[in-house]
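Please, structure for the following, as tokens.
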Amino acid sequence: MSYNVLAQQLVYDNSYLYSHCLPELLEWEYRKRNLLSEIAAASPSVLCMQEIQHDHFTDFWNPQMTKLGYSGVYKRRTGGKCDGCATFVKMDIFEIVDSCTIEFYRPAVHPLSKDNVAVILLLKPRAGPPDTRLCIANTHLLFSPSRGDVKLAQVNLLLAEIDRLAFRSPARLRHESYHPVILCGDFNSVPHSDLYDFASSGNLAYVGLNCSTISGQKQGFSRQLTSPLLPDCVGVSEQCQFMEVCKQRQHQTRLSAPGESECADAESGENTADAAARKQTPLLYTLDSGSLSHNLNLNSVYRHFRLNGKPEVTTFHTKASCTVDYIFYNVAEKRQQRVDKYGRRRSFSVSEGSLRLLARMVLPSSDELDQLGKLPNECLSSDHVSLMAKFLLER
């Protein structure tokens, strides 16, 4: 389950978005009961939450989720912001074996100038083979529609952290190199925007892209992206990998290659086979080619359109009615894409790996939410709806 629950301070700060709502329905005492009831009824094995107000995590969410059998990891946004991301895990189903929290802010790095964060967990199922793992990533990217450069840089860094934590070992097939991955959150980007297509296709030529249109939320002209997206000091390549991690993997692959000599060069102390390989083998990453890529083979749980052609909606208030929230998961292969009669780009012939999608909760269309009422309302106490999917994790 992925859910942007709307931090209470942001209700006050952006009250113009909720002028449709009765004041008593916006009060935290009312909202928190509705939100907790909805989550408890769904009883997800893993819950990824965005816009968790920092004092509410301590005073409400963590104690209540603990009572329901969960353990959580929280990361507050930097810069004194009021909220952050939290990921809760049912402790009778999973054990947290590793975790990292990400601060996207980097001093003096222009595209990493904002205070967004992410949480990544590596989980071990309590039943099944002891080497089975599941990587869960949860994020809330920058909102600003005109700063697509920032969002793309945040995704670049996020995918590098996922690559580091979810990597299993080198394998003949790319997807077999990684543990199963689920990536979810509020991406503040619409379906089939440049940012969405990069996440789902694994490739993006970014030089010349208009920063205002990368996330698909805004039309118009602004600064165009140039190469490199991120400076060397960040340590992340255009392949969304940490450069040092990439070098270590390359070195380990050389050492494990059959038939290599173990003798060391007399002057340098380096294995002669390593020295030869270092001279002959190019580095496996680029920094300023103008194109981004990643190896995670991510596929969206949702198709973003209903069968009648109406677009699905994950947020709906006075100023917006669109999809910005996603659940992605890694698959074995995505063979090609096509455009259907509605002009929608869809992946098809997806071959799943050890993580199999069994079901997903239907998302509403804007027409359906119009009938129910803009968000929040009496029934739903956030300005986003929750996303839910059921997976089979094969051994």
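Confidence is low (pLDDT under 50) at residues 259-270, 272-281. The two ends are 22 Å apart (CA to CA).
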